[in-house]
Specification:
The complex is a heterodimer. By secondary structure, chain A is of the alpha/beta class. In chain A, 35% of the residues lie in helices and 15% in strands. Chain A has helices at residues 38-46, 65-71, 85-95, 112-123, 144-155, 175-181, 189-198, 211-214, 225-245; strands at 13-14, 25-31, 52-59, 75-79, 100-103, 128-131, 171-174, 203-207. Chain B has a single domain (2-293), classed as Spore Coat Polysaccharide Biosynthesis Protein SpsA, Chain A (Alpha-Beta Complex), CATH 3.90.550. In chain B, strands 1-4-3-2-5-7-6-8 form an 8-stranded mixed beta sheet, with helices on both faces. Classes of the chains: A alpha/beta, B alpha/beta.
Chain lengths: 262, 296
């Protein structure tokens, strides 16, 4: 069973600006207590494309992030409670108007030059343009998130993607992809990833941005609470996959003759 | 299905069998005498000696099965159950020369896992030791599996970790195996799996899991873990580089790999039907986690 995260809609305020023309690109940035980086992140986001809207989903912020965002010429959604990045992306995608949607994080400043390849790939016909980044893998025991991303791709017959996934930013999707995946499913990124591949969309890793190095140390600590959450999300996705394609996910039994064993 | 005992020198002909195995001469290699006085091969325990069955599935293994059977014959075992399937070579002729061999014959290939499940069903012993017909493993290397079960382990696995490279250089199947173990809260088992041989099961494990589930080894492993059986690694035997290269098990997409990937999906599906879709990974509130993540 896939359980959609409930959204806390408490004190939702929309500040739409600059909506005179339909934007080509929507840059979606969930942010929670990121006053140190958010202004820079927005500045880079604006430079990605001349006709872009920037949608910032401020949630659970108590450090003045909201005040900083309000000073920028961006669309802002504000929530008192923390949503998590994934639900934030889902909320942002719902109000996005662009033909291309680019997802980044508020805590990671990535140059617009590093973001453009994702948008360009979608502009050229890609549906889901992923970050060609698998996480640290040159070790014997990898992080559960890395392992999960690899295994989901294997189970989707896309082991060529290695550990690339919609779980990681930056990634860009086409409007067609959004229609196939549906915005609310972006709140479980591996599910969105699986739906895109199963839905016959063109999904490729297009450009490498080493986000591992940019992640603050707090999420690289040994006991990472996100590890269980994200592994659980991958399992729910495998649940969805096996309900859709059968218990074996469409893989054959080869020469196995089960009827012999009684 | 036929159960042919060694004592019957001639097998009654069956119309289903397409190719009659040719009568083979005794293997040139001498059969080592089973001896429980051998310090390597005796079980060190005050409790009565358990009975041991060795189970193997074989499909055209005339080059290797003699060496495999000679080694297992050195163990203090009661029977060797050999499930021949799809054999068109002299495998049968070699197998029938071993006094403890009980041979089950299928004319067509049935798959190694099905063969093992049938062998397990036929086995009558306290300890079930599963080996492959294509990789001879010395009796000394097999003994720890038997010993582990004798000492209370239910599922004794081979630890292949020392023979593996870093994660980025492993194959897809190792990744699936590791993911299954970790999803079931057994990070410590890493890539080790019932998919690999050798391994051993206690009779309790066999009965708890059910022999039909042995047809899909990762599923058997998931059930063993979820039902609280003692699943442990007991020794390290290098089988990683000894697998025969066949046209069905090499390449990025090969039928054996797809079979095993499907097995892991099936195992996860089974586990979810037992304990919910997040398995050992508790569903913490996303909000709570987001809040923790941002605590500085």
């Amino acid at each position: 069973m896939i359980v959609k995260r409930t959204r806390k809609r408490s004190s939702r305020r929309t500040v739409p600006r600059n909506t005179s023309t339909t934007p080509y690109l929507s840059v979606i940035i969930p942010v929670m207590n990121e006053r140190r980086t958010i202004a820079k992140v927005i500045r880079e986001a604006k430079k990605v494309h001349p006709n872009a809207e920037v949608i910032v989903i401020v949630n659970g912020s108590k450090d003045g992030t909201e005040r900083i965002v309000r000073q920028q010429r961006v669309k802002m959604l504000s929530f008192d409670k923390p949503l998590g990045h994934d639900v934030g992306r889902s909320v942002g995608a719902e109000m996005a108007q662009g033909q291309v949607l680019l997802f980044i994080d508020g805590d990671m400043v990535i140059s617009h030059r590093q973001l453009r390849p994702f948008v360009q790939a979608v502009a050229k016909g890609m549906d889901v343009a992923l970050n060609d980044y698998s996480g640290p893998t040159h070790k014997r025991l990898v992080h559960g998130v890395v392992l999960s991303k690899y295994v989901l791709n294997i189970m989707l017959s896309r082991s060529d993607l290695k550990g690339s996934s919609m779980t990681a930013v930056p990634h860009a999707i086409s409007r067609r992809a959004l229609e196939v995946i549906q915005a609310q499913n972006l709140s479980i990124p591996p599910l969105a990833h699986a739906m895109a591949i199963e839905g016959g969309l063109q999904v490729e890793a297009v450009h490498a941005v080493n986000v591992g190095r940019m992640n603050p140390v707090r999420v690289r600590q040994h006991k990472d609470p996100l590890e269980k959450l994200i592994m659980g999300d991958h399992l729910e996705t495998i649940d969805w996959l096996s309900q859709k394609l059968g218990a074996r996910g469409g893989f054959s039994d080869f020469t196995r003759k089960r009827e012999i064993v009684r | 299905m036929r159960l042919v005992r060694r004592s019957k020198r001639r097998v009654a002909s069956t119309s289903k069998r397409k190719v009659k195995p040719k009568k083979q001469p005794l293997p040139t290699r001498s059969i080592a005498v089973k001896t429980t006085s051998n310090p390597y091969l005796s079980l060190q325990s005050s409790t009565p000696l358990p009975s041991i069955s060795v189970i193997l599935s074989a499909q055209n293994e005339e080059d290797s099965i003699g060496a495999v059977l000679s080694e297992v014959s050195r163990l203090p075992i009661q029977e060797i159950i050999i499930v021949l399937n799809g054999c068109t070579d002299g495998t049968y002729g070699i197998a029938r020369t071993y006094p403890l061999a009980k041979i089950i014959h299928y004319p067509d290939p049935i798959g190694h896992d099905v063969g093992r499940a049938i062998g397990a069903k036929m086995a009558s012993s306290d300890i079930l030791l599963f080996v492959d017909a294509d990789i001879p493993i010395t009796a000394q290397d097999l003994m720890p599996f038997v010993q582990a079960i004798h000492q209370g382990v239910d599922v004794a696995l081979n630890d292949i970790n020392p023979y593996l490279s870093t994660f980025d250089r492993r194959d897809d199947l190792s990744r699936c195996k590791e993911f299954l173990n970790r999803s079931l809260g057994r990070r410590d088992l890493t890539v080790n799996s019932l998919t690999a041989i050798p391994h051993a099961l206690s009779r309790k494990a066999m009965e708890t899991i059910g022999y039909t589930y042995l047809m899909v080894p990762p599923k058997a492993q998931a059930i063993a873990i979820l039902k609280g059986l003692r699943v442990e690694v007991c020794t390290s035997v290098n089988v990683v580089e000894r697998n025969k290269i066949r046209k069905t098990n090499v390449g990025q997409t090969n039928p054996v790999a797809e079979l095993i990937i499907g097995d892991h999906l099936e195992a996860i599906r089974e586990a979810m039907d037992i304990c919910g879709s997040r398995l050992a990974l508790t569903d913490n509130q996303r909000n709570h986690i987001a809040a923790r993540r941002n605590r500085r």
